[in-house]
Amino acid sequence: MRITRINSFGYIELTVQSAVERMGNPGMTQRSSSKRTNGAHAVLSKVPAVTLTFWIIKILATTLGETGGDTVSMTMNLGYLVGTAIFATALVVFVVLQIRAKAFHPFLYWATIIASTTAGTTLADFADRSLGIGYAGGSSVLLACVLGMLGLWYRSQGTVSVDTVNTPKVEAFYWATITFSQTLGTALGDWVAAAPNEDPPGMGLGYEIGALVFGGALAIVAALYFSTRISRVLLFWAAFILTRPLGATLGDLLDKPLSHGGLALSRPLATAALAVVIVACILIFPQRPGGHPAAASNTA
Asked: Count H helices, E strands: the chain?
């Protein structure tokens, strides 16, 4: 029997099942029902499918987070604390809207991501510079926060796969983990790129080398994904976290003064240009809800 159905997202779903096979294998009906249930679970996911487009937009969003955060705190001279308050407020509003939404909405999701990455930029700068924690101290504390949040999430749900992000409780874990990871990425990117004689001091690799370091680390994660059986969930979060310092170094490369190794581009213009590219990507490459690449496995 052939069942053809068009789901709410416009995708045609086909299920082909032989009556003879069902009669010969009674368990098949139960398994088919389970597969349809898993498919419905994936459709109900409120995060986008993890595809190449996802990673491209994620890197653009993290770069915009760096230039946008610097625009408010530095160019507009509002300072890190005020900037953090502004972006944290926006983040809370978007997270509430995201949790209350009944389905995946691309623009709402990516607006929430951008809010988290701009809030992460100003919060990390406030902690590292204004509070004097330093890049090393800030990165260590924030790494502990990310690992702690993932640990709490795993203890509560038995998995940290983004395929499960479809209930308010899991969404709360998801967005808290993302916000900590965005803040960690800012501190880590600045630590790698900043010169040793700056305040706070960094490793001195510069923005170009820093971008190459994090880009290379992402390439290694991708190679592990295609060539090993390492947990896909683990590799996803490793890649997700690494995109933020990559965006931080790319953003700083665009807007920092020439004397600091940047290109001295206008922060507001760079932010606006990145926003236009992100919107174009969302419109040109349709976003669909989906699960983590490991959705079919039980690894966590």
From this structure: 10, 2
